Amino acid sequence: MTTARRRDTDVTQVHEWKDGRVEARQDDLAVEEPLEIRIGEHPLTVTMRTPGHDFELAAGFLFTEGIVQRADQIISIREATGSKFTERGNIVEVELAPEVDVDLAATKRNFFAASSCGICGKASIDSVRNRGVRAVNPDFRMTPEVLCRLPETLRASQEVFSRTGGLHAAALFDRNGALLVEREDIGRHNAVDKIVGWAVRENRLPLAECVLLASGRGGFEIIQKAAMAGIPVVASVSACSSLAVRLAREVGMTLAGFLRGQRFVVYAGGERLGLTPESVSLPFAAHSKPARS
Questions:
Q1: Mean pLDDT, residues 101-105 taken together
Q2: Is the backbone of residue 10 left (phi > 0), alpha (psi -120 to 50) or beta?
Q3: Cα–Cα distance, 282 to 260 (Å, whole number)
Q4: How far is Cα 227 from Cα 271, in angstroms, rounded to an integer?
């Protein structure tokens, strides 16, 4: 069963000020609505998302949060029945295999703590380690030139972003830069979950021969989700956070940021890109020892 097509854009009237003139016009907005994910009839979590690919989002969330480890542990995903008119299309029910034991109360507490930044960096990485994340494929290689082409390919496929300017995107590529799948969402984490959910439902995990490109910042949760899916290279068009860098180095992932034009910054795993940087002295190196008298 598949969900009916939901609107991912809406139209509103706005007033635009430009060079001292005011003009009334219509503007496209990215749609933002809540999606409740249930295990059976029991609520698990609610995420704000752009409607579309909701079953992938649910599957990807369950996998990247460590609730399921294999595709066959998800028996079915369907729209909830009997919901209010205003909730239709915004609730999905997941049926898991009997072997999957979910402590709903504990799980919801963990989601709340993570979203509220209520856990420290060490605890965050420990929680990922406890989910059984293994080191990602050490043999994957790609060239810097191919990596630099990925943002342009992603932008060309961002249909909703081109109309609204209000969505994040994530895309999966092979080592030659061929686009495998792209997803857009109001939340960057949701876009990545939709990518992973696609892989779960297509039985393509682990994604050991793929590159993930994410719009926006390369934060911890992006790296955590990519590591759960076994992705060896992650790139973002903006900066990466300190905790994301720590996790990438721990799992042996290549992490690049500021991927724009013919430039990027590598935070971890440069060997996959064939990089052998020259040794340089940090600005403070000359002052690390007291001057001799």
A1: 79
A2: beta
A3: 24
A4: 18
Structural tokens at position 197: 């959910």
Determine the number of helices (DSSP H) and then strands (DSSP E) in the chain: 8, 12
140, burial (CB in 10 Å: exposed 0-12, middle 13-18, buried 19+):
middle
Mean pLDDT of 86-101: 89
Fold of 33-129: Ubiquitin-like (UB roll) (3.10.20)
Say whether 290 sits in a helix, a strand or coil: coil
- List, by residue number, the catalytic residues: 117
The pLDDT value recorded for residue 122 is: 61
Strands 42-49 and 33-39: antiparallel
Largest CA distance in the chain: 83
CATH topology of domain 144-273: Cytidine Deaminase; domain 2 (3.40.140)
Q: Are 79 and 55 in contact (CB under 8 A)?
A: no
| 173: pLDDT strictly greater than 80 | yes
Domain coordinates of the chain in residue numbers? 33-129, 144-273
Most confident of 77-86, 183-192, 228-237, 268-277: 228-237
What's the pLDDT band for 288 if we cut at 50, 70, 90? very low
Judge contact between 175 and 142, C-beta under 8 A: yes
User: Which CA distances in Å does 26 have to 11, 16, 30?
Assistant: 7, 10, 13
Report how far residue 215's alpha carbon sits from residue 183's, in angstroms, rounded to the nearest whole number.
11
Please list the residues that pair with 235 across neighbouring strands.
213, 256
Distance CA 54, CA 48 (A): 11
CA–CA dist 174, 146 (Å, integer)? 10
Q: Is 164 helix (H, G, I), strand (E, B) or coil?
A: helix
* Average pLDDT of the residues of the chain: 83
Asked whether this chain's domains 33-129 and 144-273 adopt the same fold, the reply is no
For the sheet containing 33-39, what is the strand order?
42-49, 33-39, 91-96, 74-79
